[in-house]
User: Which sequence fits this backbone?
């Protein structure tokens, strides 16, 4: 494992509580930050060769991490932070936080991404999930995505060949590619107007979402034409809890950690909500958050 140190920063026996927005207690044998794409490729080849398991973690804002220790290497792309803007074409590496990208674009008088302010995720994972809000999604603006394939070769995929839908993509379905960057096409706009929109979106989030408690965003995808938060609220489930994992009083499609919630508490709560929604409305809810098993 010493060899990985050549390719980036390597930490041993790491507590992952601060690396996931639910603040769940989780841990891994190794946490690794490759220096750049070339070093990422070398490290992935090394890990594959040695048959050492790895997992790419973004900002941990859409995952429910298990309590047991991950026997392998968690890779974080925090050093992949290049943003290149040429006219209205934006190239952005996977490790950039989407809120940072929004501000960069607005500073260049480019509009289109304001809806993403307040999403605490990386650009790589936003592409992976087709993140969206307020009737927009990142695939509305994507031209192509650069990935590492199963053999760790760099490939540029045109948007046309990337299957995607509401909060879903083929990257999420197959989980075999590493997203390293994305090219977006935005519209020419005006800083002041974009900033007004950003303030409006941020205010809406503060007034409707329980952002002052640890959470991982919406728990379930909205069934077509319906708001899942309303369905859950109508079942009287606001404040329903398992130990410290609560259905938020503010927004019933959020689970919040009021202290020491665990993976088991949150996943049990999710199952109960799914079951009650099925019984009452005959709807099969799909979880938007990723329940990780390792
Ligand atoms: C308060 C709050 C509000 C939110 N609001 C929204 C919202 O409005 N809209 C929305 O869509 N989401 C929202 N989310 C959810 C979340 O922020 C997004 O899903 C985001 O895309 C996750 O980014 P992340 O970097 O934290 O990913 P993580 O949770 O770290 O990872 C998610 C998945 O992506 C994979 N992944 C990460 N990076 C890569 C990569 N480079 N290549 C391949 N796979 C990768 C991981 O392996 C994992 O499977 C919200 C979350 C919170 C906490």
Assistant:
């Amino acid at each position: 494992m010493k060899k990985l140190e050549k390719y980036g920063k390597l930490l041993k026996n790491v507590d992952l509580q601060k690396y996931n927005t639910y603040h769940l207690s989780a841990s891994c044998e190794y946490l690794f930050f490759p220096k750049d794409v070339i070093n990422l490729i070398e490290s992935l080849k090394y890990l594959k060769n040695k048959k050492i398991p790895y997992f790419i973690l973004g900002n941990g804002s859409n995952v429910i991490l298990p309590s047991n220790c991950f026997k392998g290497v968690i890779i974080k792309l925090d050093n992949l932070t290049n943003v290149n803007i040429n006219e209205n074409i934006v190239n952005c590496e996977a490790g950039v936080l989407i809120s940072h990208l929004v501000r960069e674009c607005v500073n260049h008088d480019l509009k289109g991404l304001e809806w993403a302010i307040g999403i605490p995720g990386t650009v790589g994972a936003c592409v992976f999930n087709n993140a969206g809000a307020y009737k927009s999604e990142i695939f509305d603006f994507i031209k192509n995505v650069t990935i590492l394939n199963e053999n760790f070769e760099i490939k540029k995929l045109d948007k046309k060949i990337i299957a995607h839908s509401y909060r879903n993509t083929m990257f999420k379905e197959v989980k075999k590619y590493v997203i390293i960057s994305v090219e977006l096409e935005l519209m020419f706009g005006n800083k002041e107007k974009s900033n007004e929109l950003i303030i409006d979106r941020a205010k809406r989030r503060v007034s409707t979402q329980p952002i002052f408690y640890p959470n991982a965003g919406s728990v379930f995808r909205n069934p077509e034409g319906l708001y899942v938060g309303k369905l859950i609220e109508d079942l009287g489930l606001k404040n329903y809890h398992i130990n410290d994992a609560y259905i938020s009083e503010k927004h019933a499609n959020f689970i919040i950690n009021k202290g020491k919630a665990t993976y088991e508490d949150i996943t049990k709560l999710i199952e109960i909500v799914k079951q009650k929604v099925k019984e009452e409305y005959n709807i099969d809810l799909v979880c938007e958050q990723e329940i990780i098993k390792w």
